[in-house]
Design brief:
- The protein is α+β, with helices and mostly antiparallel strands.
- It contains 15 helices and 9 strands.
- The strands form 2 sheets. A 6-stranded mixed β-sheet has the order 1-2-6-4-5-3. A 3-stranded antiparallel β-sheet has the order 7-8-9, with helices on one face.
- The radius of gyration is 26 Å and the shape is globular.
């Protein structure tokens, strides 16, 4: 079922509210107040000014639509919890009211379109079709956009989405810098209407190694300000080595906590441990700081008394309640931690 809207987005792009008659401006303002999503769609359309030649609105099977690779949002991280409010809204309204923006693709036997803006809507409709609402359809406006215009359109939508993390956007910018802007940050900043300083910080955050990002419970926790502090610290090779070593250790701790059904290590604690990784290797007095292993109840099982070229001295704590298996695990973790922070046993 198709309803062609000749040059619909193009008309929106060309429209300037300041030039519209007063009654029209008032109606637009009232509609924007009533539904921010519609207001956002209008703003999204304007970003592609001049590149949108034709728009067709369709009712699609979401299975025939894939997500454009240039979008910042990680589709695999979307869950029912993340989309619950949108799902409930679609159910209450009897279907998707705000169309997504897609473009037609060729040469893919499994898909006919790709989503430029509206990833959560696509996920939510797909979820509803698989969960008691098989007749739900994905409503989309089909636009003709080049890749750079599609990127700007998707970026504008993502700026208004709190659930798109700074890190996701940063990695998206880093990829787009090469793909669309020939590695020219100034040109990219001008096209996206961003400050050059802010974009530079985002690109530095995007360059954080996967090992460092993996220390956090989720990439969503890597926000711009702390992420930039980490990126700055990693300019020092010694700091970078220490941060990566501690990050890998924290990542294993996070995995163990998930397996045990325990809450993850908080982002603030992860950040503190990473930023003080070098200090963990060498304390303020130039001596290695002690490492200790605690069981899930917070009792100390093992602590490192010293680690130097002569060897490693550890203390096993009485009263921890640990059995031999946990003590062996504690010793193994201690040796791995020392290795990662440059204090391991030398061959």
């Amino acid at each position: 079922m198709a309803r062609k809207q000749s040059d619909y987005l193009a008309a929106l792009l060309a429209e300037e509210e300041a030039e519209a008659p007063a009654p029209v401006r008032e109606a637009v303002a009232e509609r924007s107040r009533g539904t921010t999503l519609l207001g956002r769609e209008s703003a999204l359309a304007r970003v592609a000014s001049g590149e949108v030649r034709q728009v067709t609105q369709l009712l699609l099977d979401p299975a025939r639509v894939k997500i454009w690779s240039g979008n910042a949002r990680n589709y695999d991280l979307l869950t029912e919890a993340h989309c619950r409010e949108l799902i409930d809204s679609i159910i209450a309204e009897g279907g998707q009211k705000v169309p997504a923006v897609v473009r037609r693709i060729e040469g893919d036997p499994d898909h006919d379109y790709e989503v430029i803006a509206g990833t959560r809507r696509h996920w939510s409709i797909s979820w509803l079709r698989a969960n008691s609402y098989p007749d739900m359809v994905f409503v989309a406006q089909v636009a003709q956009l080049d890749d750079e215009a599609a990127f700007r359109l998707a970026d504008l939508e993502n700026r208004a989405r709190a659930d798109v993390s700074d890190f996701e956007r940063a990695r998206n910018y880093l990829s787009a810098l090469t793909t669309h802007y020939g590695n020219h940050q100034t040109r990219m900043a001008e096209r996206l209407k961003l400050s050059k300083g802010w974009l530079s910080k985002m690109l530095k955050v995007a360059a954080l190694p996967d090992e460092v990002v993996g220390a956090f419970a989720s990439p969503h926790e890597v926000q711009l300000k702390p992420g930039y502090a980490l990126a700055q610290a990693m300019q020092d090779p010694m700091e970078a080595s220490a941060i990566i070593g501690v990050a890998q250790y924290i990542a294993r701790q996070q995995a163990e906590r998930r397996e045990d059904g325990l809450p993850p290590i908080a982002a603030s604690e992860v950040l503190h441990r990473l930023l003080t990784a070098r200090k963990m290797m060498l304390g303020e007095d130039g001596e290695p700081e002690r490492y200790s292993y605690h069981n899930r109840y917070g009792r100390p099982v093992l602590s490192v008394q010293s680690a130097n070229r002569q060897g490693v001295t550890v203390r096993l704590h009485a009263g921890s309640g640990a059995d031999v298996e946990e003590i062996v695990k504690a010793l193994r973790d201690a040796l791995e931690h020392l290795e990662q922070t440059g204090r391991g046993l030398q061959p």
